[in-house]
Amino acid sequence: MERMNKSLKKYLVVSIFSLPFASAVFAEGEDSEKLNYTPDDYRNFYGICWRGSPQDNIDYARQMGYTHVVYQWGMENCKNIDGLKYFLETPESGTANRTVDIRKKYTPEEIREFETTLALKDATKPFPQNIATGWFGPPYRLSGILDFQQKRIIERTIDRIMGASVEELSSVEGIGEVLAKNIKDYFEEKL
Fold first, then answer.
1. pTM score, two decimals?
2. What is the full DSSP assignment across the chain?
3. Separation of alpha carbons 66 and 60, rounded Å
4. Which of 26, 42, 54, 64 could form a disulfide with 74 if both were Cys (CB 3.0 to 4.6 A apart)?
């Protein structure tokens, strides 16, 4: 039995160390997509939107040759933005209240809204222990995950994102037109 365990260990060690080598040798002959994006390709974007000032991020993106950036509130007022295209990072996070403060007492209506909008991790547990969580925060706060298995939630989220893109953000000078143009350009390219 001990001899068999030694042989098995030796086999596993040899297999583990030979796997990267075999992958490199045999993968070379396969046809695979080359990741060769041009600077103006939408997949080549600068996405730091949670740090630094909008102007610093625009300046850096320009310096590095990016034409697509993740939108940071206030970028529409920056200089040197002509020709940039914007992405909205996790726009769904602003379409529903996903934050549950476990120190707070919620009404039955509020609890029902959370339980029918957010994904549940265990329907047998009481609120808020039944809510599936995403981002970590302080120990008293849960950040729920929208329940995208429900068609109603998908449609409501899309309606709210598109409504914000066209209506609410158009009140910020210039950004509504930029978003509308980016959306229109994207769909024209794909069709």
1. 0.54
2. -HHHHHHHHHHHHHHHHHHHHHHHHHHTTS--------TTSTTSEE---SSS-HHHHHHHHHHTT-SEEE--TTGGGSSS-TT-EEE-SSGGGGSS--EEETTSPPPHHHHHHHHHHBPBS-TTSPTTTTB-B-S--STTEEEB-B-TTSHHHHHHHHHHHHHIIIIIGGGSTTHHHHHHHHHHHHHHHH-
3. 9
4. 54
For the stretch 12-39, pLDDT in tens is 444 444 545 455 555 555 455 666 777 6
Token pair of 20 as six digits: 């990267």
Q: What tokens appear for 77 in the block? A: 């007022």
